[in-house]
C-alpha cells in the first residue's frame, strides 16, 4: 500500500513539476526527426533514440527530481515518515521506468518500423531505466546544486556511453558486454533486429542482477549521504 | 518516554563534539523545552532521538526501547516539525497533507479539520508555493501531528508566526499535552517556553546546565522581594521590599494606605534573565 502510494506520489510530482511535458515534447521531436530518415538508417537510429531515453535523459531527469525534493525539503519529511528507503528508491525507479516505456512504445509505434519484439523492448527499457535511475540517485546523493550534479554526471555518462561504440563489432568486442549499458543496448537492439533466445535470456538475467546490486548499493549510499547527516 | 543517559556525540566531518555527557528524562504527557544559544546542540539532540544521527555513545531510550533497536515503524508514533518549512511546492495545502498521510498506517485526522484549526481552510486548494512563510510553517506543523503521534518534536514551532497564529499553535500543543501526548520542543522564545513547558532544560556547549519547571527556576533565580510603584503628591516613586513579613512592614503598609498604587511586582527572575545568567550570552 505504502509503496503504491509512493509511486503515485512520484508520478504526480513529476507531472506537476512539468517533467511529463518535457518528455512529450522530446518524444515528438524525436518522431519528427525519425520520420525524415530512410529505412536503412532508421533501423540503427530508432534503437539508439529509444535507448537514449531511459539512459541519458533518465539520468538528467532523476537528478532534477531528487534535487527538487532536496531544495523543497520534502526529502527530510520522507526520512521521518514510515516510508522505507527501499520503497522510496523503487518508487523512483518504477515511476521513471513507466515514462520510459511509454516513450519507447510511442516512438517505436509511430515510426512504423516493422518486426519489433515488444516484450524485449519492454524489458530492455525497464532494465536500462532502472540502472540509470539508480546511478543518478547515487551520483546525486553528495550534490547540493544542479550544476554540481551536471558536472559529476558527465564522467559517468562517458563511462556508460563510450563503450556502446563497441557494438559496431570487432574481434572480442563482445567482452564489453560486461558494461551494463552495453548489455542493455545489446538487448534493446535485439528488440528491433532480432536476437537469439539464449542470448536474450542471458542479457536479461545479467541486467536484472546489475539492477539488484545497484539497488543494494544505492540504499547504502542514500542512507549514508542523505538520511544520516553526520 | 525518553531517557537519555550519558550521551556523547561528535560530528564526523568536523570532529566537533556537539553533545557532551548529557543526561535527561522526558516524562510521558509533558511538554519539555530545550533552551540555549545558537550552536548549543539542541537540534543535534533532537536529531539523535529522532534517529537521524548514529554513532552516539551512551543511551537513548525512547518509548521503552533503545533508539538503535527501533526500525522505521518508530516513525508511526512520532511527529517531527523541522524549523524550516518543507512542502511540495507544486501541490496544494490539502494535497500536501494527503500525500504524506498515505504513508502512515491509520489514525489519520481529517485534513480539513486540521487546516481549519490553523486558519488554512480557505487556502486548502492553493498551491504551497504561493504561501507566506507563516502559512507554510502552519501547514508544516499540522502535517507533523496528523497521524496522531505519541511523541512530538518541534523545532522553533512559532518562529515567523504573528501573535494570533502563534497563539493557535501554542493552544494545539497544550491540547496535545492534555490528550496525554509528549512534546519535546526547542525555542529561543522565552515566553513560549514559559507558557508551554512543564519543564525546561538550559543547554550550553552540548551540556545541560539546569533543568526544572519554569516557575521553580524563576523563583529560585530571582529575589524574594517585591517592587511597588506609587504616586504621591503628583510624583512617581518606586520602592522594593523583602517578601517575608510584608504585613508587618510599616513602611509598606503606609504606602498601601496613603498613596496611589500604580503597580506591584514580585521580583522573580524571568527566563530571559536566567538564560543570560546561565549562558553568559544575550538572547539570540
Ligand atoms: N551537520 C553538521 N555537521 C557538522 N557539525 C554540525 C552539524 N550540525 C551542527 N553542527 C555543529 O554542532 C553544534 C550544535 O549544533 P546544533 O545545530 O545542534 O545547535 P542548536 O542548539 O540547534 O542551534 P540553533 O539555536 O542555532 O538552532 C554546533 O557547533 C554546530 O556547528
Ligand atoms: Mg537548531
Molecular structure report:
The complex is a heterodimer of chains A (230) and B (284). Chain A is 80% helix and 0% strand. Chain A is mostly helical and 230 residues long. Chain A is globular, with a radius of gyration of 18 Å. The model of chain A has no long low-confidence stretch (mean pLDDT 90). By secondary structure, chain B is of the alpha/beta class. Chain B has ten helices and 13 strands. Chain B has helices at residues 42-50, 74-77, 93-101, 111-117, 133-145, 163-178, 190-196, 214-220, 250-258, 271-279, and strands at residues 2-11, 16-26, 31-35, 57-62, 65-66, 78-81, 151-155, 182-186, 199-204, 207-212, 225-232, 235-242, 260-266. Chain B has a six-stranded mixed beta sheet, with helices on both faces. A four-stranded antiparallel beta sheet of chain B has the order 2-1-4-5, covered by helices on one side. In chain B, strand 4 and strand 5 (65-66) form a beta hairpin. The complex binds adenosine-5'-triphosphate and magnesium ion. Adenosine-5'-triphosphate (ATP) is lined by residues 11, 13-14, 16, 18, 36, 38-44 of chain B. Adenosine-5'-triphosphate binds at residues 11, 13-14, 16, 18, 36, 38-44 of chain B.
